[in-house]
Amino acid sequence: MNDRLRNPVSLEESAFWMPFTANRQFKKAPRMLARAEGMYYYTPEGREVLDGTSGLWCVNAGHCRPKIVAALQRQVAQMDFAPTFQMGHPLAFEFAEKLIGVTPKGFKHVFFTNSGSESVDSALKIALAWHRARGDAGRFRLIGRERGYHGVNFGGISVGGIASNRKHFGPMVGGVDHIRHTHDPLRNTFARGQPQHGAEFADDLERLVSLHDASTIGAVIVEPVAGSTGVLVPPKGYLERLRELCTKHGILLIFDEVITGFGRLGKPFATDYFGVTPDLIVTAKGITNGTVPMGAVFVRDEIFQAFMQGPENSIEFFHGYTYSGHPVACAAAIATLETYADEGLLTRAASLAKHFEDCAHALKGLPHVIDVRNLGLMAGIELAPRPDAPGKRAFEAFVKCFEQGVLIRVTADIIALSPPLIVENPQIDRIFETLSSVLRTLE
User: Fold this and answer.
1) Which of 73, 84, 260, 281 is disulfide-compatible with 298, CB 3.0–4.6 A?
2) pLDDT in tens, 382-416
3) DSSP state letter for 80
4) What mean pLDDT is predicted for residues 184-200?
């Protein structure tokens, strides 16, 4: 037997290389979670931790929901895996039909992946291949946005605009450029919901059209609400203007709804909330309530049909993953949709949003708070960075909140909150009361 299995090592010697984590720091002072139920995690010692972040933006229906757990157990005992390359299984087709039942109008087809990162790369490839299928192969260029987050595969970090996710990995995918971000602290600080100013930022796409020519641009990808960079809410009219410009220049518009999808804003998707329809929608996270990795790209019918030409025996799109439409993931996802429907969770955030907003903006005036942004059940609280240690102040807030029984998330000096959609007002109060108390202690 392996000596490491016979004699378990300490965490500091552990083989686990943790993602997006300061490994040495964590392993000296770990924050461990042992089980979960409803709105709460529990530490190995049994201490309760209120989940203010839906796990990682993904556990929209709360933890360990009985219907989802039962579906997983049944499916893994019945059929653990089936390929979807030149083969099929009923659950993939059943789930696709059920999913189309909640997607925005016009999206009639679903391409399954295993994560948001894979969904992004799949959507980018669909966009480029669609132009080629129409005889417009010159449209090879992809446009992202500064401060955008689109996962961590090479396509996603290329169109993404977060420097720390890009700087270590060379020149990225070719033919990519970026429009400016929408953050405008001079005009929009402490805006409630959508900021009043900044619709004109969408016109930055015209700059890239002038630079590259529209005939070379295949797609623009944006998050309707930029989540991982610190909850940047689009200014009023911004998404409408971006849609108008993409249509004008024959460019596909992709919405990355990995975070905003499945009820986060009080509508099933941000597409529904804003009333702006893209050409492709990227999803993951809430699709299975975080229980099993899965993602999907929603495709408008006219895009799908462009691929369905030529000989019937030819593969129309040379792309996919071993686990695309995995039967266990499909079982979990079907049960997740049923749970959402049973409890009205895809629209429940609308009834909680005002209280959530009031609690978030009550932090204005507390030490170090320089901005608060919110929409639906999403909030970003930005702290002034320490001149000698950017990011450290928010990280200290994260640790102290955990110690006081509330899980928050931090990006640089921005605190992000996104509780499960089953949250009640008293739990919202506790999240913000704990955060308020902690903020008062920070240096």
Assistant:
1) 281
2) 999 999 999 999 999 999 999 999 999 999 999 99
3) S
4) 97
pLDDT digits (tens, 9 = 90+) for 299-311: 999 999 999 998 9
Task: Dig out the tokens for 265 from the structure.
Answer: 């804003």
Residue among 256, 237, 148 at smallest CA distance from 196: 237
Structure tokens at 279: 């050409």
For the residues 64-86, what does the mean pLDDT come to?
98
What's the rounded Cα separation, in Å, for the pair 233 and 60? 20
Q: Cβ distance 100 to 110 under 8 Å?
A: yes
CA distance 176 to 182: 19
- What residues contact 66, with CB distance under 8 A and at least 6 apart? none
- Within 10 Å of residue 416's Cβ, how many Cβ atoms? 23
* pLDDT given for residue 5 in this prediction: 47
Listed in sequence order, the residues at least 6 apart from 392 whose beta carbon sits closer than 8 Å to its beta carbon are 386
Single-letter amino acid code for the residue at 71? A
Instruction: Name the β-bridge partners of 407.
Output: 51
Evaluate the CA torsion angle 30, 118, 101, 68 in order and state its sign: negative
DSSP 133-164: HTT-TT--EEEEETT----SSHHHHHH---HH
